[in-house]
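Quick one from the shared queue. A colleague (R.T.) flagged DHH family protein as missing a structural entry in our internal table.

Convert sequence to structure tokens.
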Amino acid sequence: MTVLEEILATIKDYETIVIHRHKRPDPDAIGSQVGLAELLRHSFPEKQIYQVGGPVEGLDYLATMQDVPNEVYAGALVIVTDTANSPRISDDRYDQGAKLIKIDHHPNDEPYGDLVWVDTQASSCSEMIATFALTFSELSLNDAAARLLYAGIVGDTGRFLYPATTPHTLEVAAQLLRYEFDSAKLNRELEQIPMSVARLAGYVYQNLEIDPNGAARVILPQSLLQEYGIVDSQTAAIVSLPGVIDSALAWGIFVQQPEGYYRVRLRSKGPVINELAKKHHGGGHPLASGANARDLAEVETIYQEIQALCADYQK
């Protein structure tokens, strides 16, 4: 029995299913989580399916979460999507069910759960859920699920620009576009930003530091975020901006949090950065990761490590 067959058999065995995703969600987190929920609701209308987690942080045009009492978890199946490490799971009741399934496309550094399906070759967890849906005749996609899964794929591939985009990614996306939803509107919603973030983008371009080997960084202190009227979740929109600069090879966006530490968003066009991220309380994909820096001294250390990676890559 394949892992997909095991997952389907397990889903069939449970009347109550609670689906989680990671904190600070992006479109793939919401797309895979609620896309799976909508898929299961449509395929198994007799089951009770719930989506839980903290605030969706500006992604409420995709979906919202449900308030679920603790007693729902008794005897329930819990599924966590798009979350590599258990500390990142939004809503710490994920381990209160009868069985736990992990579905993810990040490196499997922590294989938590009773059943694990990890595919690091997938562009997104949403692509994995869509593949799951298209594999079995017992599963039936609907318009709501297709819209969410398409949003997750578009979000995690940067509109199909990132290296993780494969022929299978495009084949799955084409299948999802057969359903009735406004993909043009959805793409606009995924792309549009408020004026405050547009002004922050200008600051990033004006203040980006790039060394001769293509290592780049910009530091966004709390005072700046307050000046621009920006919260941390909105800075996700500017993370990819250095990538359009020809001389930028790998970069870090260092966003100071209200508590004083820095959230570090790392991206690369070549040098592998996820091992660097793991050294600083983070992780992720080889070319897209996140980490944390306790202070400006650790910010400097991380930037020096990015510089070393770029220098080695250029040799």
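The longest strand covers residues 250-256.
The chain has a mean pLDDT of 96.
Added to the table.
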